[in-house]
Write a structure and sequence with these properties.
Helix content is about 45%, strand content about 15%. By secondary structure, it is of the alpha/beta class. It has a domain of about 220 residues: Rossmann fold (3-Layer(aba) Sandwich). The strands form three sheets. Strands 3-4-12-9-10-11 form a six-stranded mixed β-sheet, with helices on both faces. Strand 6, helix 8 and strand 7 form a beta-alpha-beta unit. The chain is globular. The two termini are about 35 Å apart. The structure holds pyridoxal-5'-phosphate. Pyridoxal-5'-phosphate binds next to helix 11.
C-alpha cells in the first residue's frame, strides 16, 4: 500500500515517508492508493479494542514495517487510559454514547496522536535521527501531541497557544507539563496567526539541525486517521446487533468524520454519518446548500470545533465527489478560499447516500446538556452535546444512533458552573492541574522571536 497526494504531484510514497512528511509537497493531503478491505467476520469475533486495531493498522503500514513490528507498536502504543478497554459505551435513551475521552488528555485525540508518536519514534530510532514537533492548537490537539511525544527523547515539542477561546483546563494541560523536551508557547494573537507562523516555519526550516525532521501533528497526518478508524470498527463490534448504525460526529477539521468515511470504504456497513457542527457552519452550508465558503471563526461553547475551514474535507472532495481526479481537486483547492467550492447538482447529490449535517448553536447545546442531565443523570461535554441533538431527536427512527463523545466534560468547567451541574468524578489526569506550576513562554506573533527561542532550546 502506497500513498499519494489529493493534488496529484506527490505520489508513490511509503507509509514512513508520509508519516514524517505530513502535508504533501504540492500542498495536498495524502491518501492511500486504494481502500484496503477488512474482514467483518473477523472484526465481529474480536473481544478488545487492541485486537481490532491489530486487524486495521497493518493494512496501512506494510510498505515500511513488517507485520510483527506493527503489531508490537499497536500492543504498546495506547497508554494511560482510565478504561480497561480504552473506550466506554453508555446507552442513554436508546442512543449509544461512544466515550473516547478516557485517555490521558481526556479527549479523543489521544487515539490518533499516541499512534502517530509511536511510529515517529520507531522511524527516528531506526534512522538514528531527532525531530521537532511544531504545532498550533486552539484546544485539544496540543495537549494530546505533547502528552504523546513527551516520553520520546528524540522528539522536542513546541506548541503555540493563541490568547483565545481555550478553557483554563485545556491551557493548563499544556503549560503544567514538566519535561525538558516540551515547550508551551503563548503567542499574542489568534489561532490563525499561530497557524500562519507554523506554516512559515515549515517553509523556511531554518532552525533545524542537520538531518532533523520537522513533524506535523495536525489532523492532516494520515496516521492520526488510522488510529481513529479503529474505534469505528470497535463500535461496530459492540453495537451491530442493535440495528443499522448512524454515527453522529461533532466536527471541526473533519478528521473524525473522514475516519468514519474511511471505515465505511473499508467495509464497515453504516446507514449514515451525521456531521454535527456549532455556529462555525462551513460544512453544514456545504451539505445542506452546496456552498463551501470561508467565513470568520466564531467563538462557541465547543471551542475545539471553532474553525473557519475543515482541512480534511479536501480528502472527501477528492475521493467521493471528484472520483479521485487530482487535477480537478488541485484546481479547486489551489483556488480556495478565493473561490468557494460548489458542485453541479448531480455531483453534489452523491452526499445523500451517506451524509447528513446538523448545526447546533450554544443555547441548543446547553439545553441538550441540561435535558440529558435532568432525565438521565449523564453529563455530556459541550462538543458531544452538539452531536447528541440529532441523535436524541431521531432515535426512534428504527436505526441505532452512535454519538461520538470526544471530550470529558471536566475540561470545560465554566459551562457546568453556569448550568449548576456538578461534575463529581474527575479523570485522574485533570484532578491536580490547578496545583501545578505553569511553564509558559510568552511571545508576540513574530516569527523571529519564536525561532530564536526554538534555536536556543534545540
Ligand atoms: C478536535 C475536536 C473535535 C473536532 O474533531 P475533528 O476531527 O477536527 O473534526 C471535536 N471535539 C473535540 C473535543 C475535539 O478536541
Amino acid at each position: 500500500m502506497l500513498f499519494h497526494s489529493t493534488r496529484g504531484k506527490d505520489s508513490g510514497k511509503d507509509f514512513a515517508s508520509i508519516l514524517m512528511q505530513g502535508l504533501a509537497d504540492d500542498g495536498g493531503l495524502f491518501m492511500p492508493d486504494y481502500w484496503p478491505q477488512v474482514d467483518l467476520d473477523e472484526i465481529r469475533s474480536k473481544t478488545s479494542f487492541i485486537e481490532i486495531a491489530k486487524c486495521v493498522v497493518p493494512l496501512f503500514t506494510a510498505s515500511s514495517f513488517s507485520q510483527d513490528e506493527t503489531i508490537n507498536i499497536v500492543e504498546s502504543t495506547w497508554h494511560d487510559f482510565e478504561h480497561k478497554d480504552l473506550i466506554g459505551i453508555k446507552e442513554v435513551n436508546s442512543v449509544s454514547i461512544l466515550e473516547l475521552f478516557h485517555g490521558p488528555t481526556a479527549a479523543f485525540k489521544d487515539f490518533g496522536l499516541q499512534l502517530a508518536a509511536a511510529f515517529f519514534n520507531k522511524v527516528l530510532e531506526s534512522e538514528n535521527r531527532t525531530a521537532i514537533v511544531l504545532g498550533a492548537t486552539s484546544g485539544d490537539t496540543g495537549s494530546a501531541a505533547i502528552d504523546a511525544c513527551k516520553n520520546y527523547d528524540r522528539i522536542k515539542s513546541f506548541i503555540m497557544l493563541p490568547t483565545g477561546n481555550m478553557s483554563e483546563v485545556q491551557r493548563r494541560q499544556m503549560s503544567t507539563i514538566n519535561a525538558s523536551n516540551v515547550f508551551a508557547l503563548r503567542v499574542s494573537g489568534t489561532f490563525d496567526d499561530c497557524q500562519d507562523l507554523v506554516k512559515l516555519a515549515f517553509k523556511k526550516r531554518d532552525f533545524l539541525k542537520n538531518n532533523q525532521y520537522l513533524l506535523a501533528v495536525n489532523s492532516i497526518n494520515w496516521t492520526r486517521i488510522i488510529g481513529q478508524i479503529c474505534y469505528y470498527f470497535y463500535a461496530f463490534n459492540k453495537l451491530h446487533q442493535k440495528g443499522d448504525l448512524i454515527f453522529s460526529v461533532p466536527t471541526g477539521n473533519f478528521g473524525n468524520v473522514f475516519a468514519c468515511y474511511s471505515a465505511h470504504k473499508m467495509g464497515l456497513p453504516m446507514k449514515k454519518i451525521s456531521v454535527a457542527v456549532n455556529n462555525n457552519d462551513i460544512l453544514h452550508r456545504f451539505f445542506s446548500e452546496n456552498n463551501y465558503s470561508k467565513q470568520h471563526v466564531r467563538e462557541t461553547l465547543s471551542p475545539s470545533m471553532d474553525i473557519s475551514v475543515a482541512s480534511n474535507f479536501e480528502r472527501l472532495v477528492y475521493d467521493l465527489f471528484l472520483d479521485r481526479d487530482s487535477s480537478k481537486s488541485s484546481t479547486m483547492f489551489n483556488n480556495f478560499p478565493d473561490l468557494p467550492i460548489e458542485f453541479d447538482q448531480k455531483i453534489w447529490k452523491k452526499k445523500d447516500d451517506l451524509f447528513s449535517s446538523n448545526k447546533v448553536n450554544d443555547a441548543e447545546t446547553t439545553n441538550m446538556i441540561k435535558e440529558i442531565y435532568d432525565t438521565h443523570g449523564y453529563i455530556l461535554d459541550p462538543h458531544t452535546a452538539v452531536a447528541a441533538v440529532e441523535a436524541f431527536q431521531k432515535s426512534d427512527s428504527g436505526n441505532h444512533f452512535v454519538v461520538l463523545s470526544t471530550a470529558h466534560p471536566a475540561k470545560f468547567p465554566k459551562v457546568y458552573e453556569d448550568l449548576n451541574i456538578e461534575i463529581s468524578s474527575l479523570p485522574a489526569s485533570l484532578s491536580n492541574l490547578f496545583e501545578k506550576d505553569e511553564h509558559l513562554h510568552t511571545f508576540d506573533a513574530d516569527y523571529n522571536q519564536i525561532i530564536n527561542f526554538i534555536n536556543l532550546n534545540n
